[in-house]
Write a sequence for this structure.
């Protein structure tokens, strides 16, 4: 039963950010295997969002909190969970606009692109490449403008390696929307 729940949860996350237009199962599975670690204390909030995503899935799909706690809360928050939760928060909390529809997948794919992983579809997947890029992100060894992290700024005024992920995202959204 635990494996079935884990598979349904993965499928739910995949559908939220990829739909049926893309084939990135290998990449997203790998992102789901890698624990999200954080260096800056406020990025713990991103981990908590990722863990809460499990309960959102449970509520939307008819699984009890007890099932989620016993079958999904046995692992740390994954990079995938953190990124999916962040894309959802971006759309629902900051960028919701009925004229554009749900852009959760776009925000997620923007993050993949900046990580250098958008070319890692199922046909071209390379685990060593993926692991190296995720290691750069997790240990904040990306460029000061955010290139190689989740969000790159064209006009960075601060070293993005020293800025919590939420602010990076906010500044990125401001920049792409010229707010």
């Amino acid at each position: 039963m635990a494996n079935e729940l884990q598979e349904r949860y993965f499928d739910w996350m995949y559908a939220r950010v990829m739909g049926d237009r893309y084939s990135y199962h290998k990449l997203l599975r790998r992102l789901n295997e890698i624990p999200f670690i954080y260096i800056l204390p406020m990025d713990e909030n991103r981990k908590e969002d990722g863990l809460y995503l499990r309960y959102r899935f449970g509520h939307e799909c008819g699984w009890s909190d007890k099932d989620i706690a016993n079958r999904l809360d046995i692992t740390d928050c994954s990079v995938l969970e953190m990124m999916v939760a962040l894309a959802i928060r971006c759309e629902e909390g900051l960028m919701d606009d009925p004229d554009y529809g749900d852009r959760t997948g776009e925000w997620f794919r923007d993050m993949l692109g900046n990580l250098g992983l958008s070319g890692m579809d199922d046909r071209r997947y390379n685990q060593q490449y993926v692991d190296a890029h995720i290691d750069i992100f997790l240990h904040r060894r990306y460029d000061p403008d955010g290139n190689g992290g989740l969000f790159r700024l064209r006009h960075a005024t601060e070293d993005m390696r020293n800025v919590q992920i939420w602010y990076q995202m906010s500044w990125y959204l401001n920049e792409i929307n010229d707010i």
